[in-house]
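Technical annex, item 7. During the second reporting period the consortium partners agreed on a shared format for inverse folding records so that results from different sites could be compared directly. Each record opens with the tokenized structure and is followed by the designed sequence. A conforming record, contributed by the partner at site C, is shown below for reference.
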């Protein structure tokens, strides 16, 4: 059975709304600042920044997971109750 979590839904709605409000004006500003002959370069900048941001967030999440595993192993070693795999 799936449990509906209203707090997560509200957070996702706020995140989507914030992204919608800031993404379109920023894209418009970058593309408007370039000449027609180099509009592709402006699009490249937008895509590159978006990919960099996504990669950075993935690294932060993975780092947090590895840190949590490290703490769990350290705690298990400290109390002498290491799980067997």
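Designed sequence (site C submission):
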């Amino acid at each position: 059975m799936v449990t509906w979590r209203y707090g997560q839904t509200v957070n996702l709605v706020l995140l989507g709304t914030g992204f919608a409000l800031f993404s379109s004006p920023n894209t418009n500003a970058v593309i408007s600042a370039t000449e027609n002959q180099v509009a592709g370069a402006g699009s490249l900048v937008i895509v590159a920044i978006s990919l960099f941001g996504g990669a950075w967030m993935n690294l932060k999440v993975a780092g947090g997971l590895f840190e949590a595993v490290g703490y769990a192993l350290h705690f298990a070693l400290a109390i002498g109750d290491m799980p067997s795999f």
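The two ends are 30 Å apart (CA to CA). DSSP finds two helices and no strands in the chain. All partners now use this format for quarterly exchanges.
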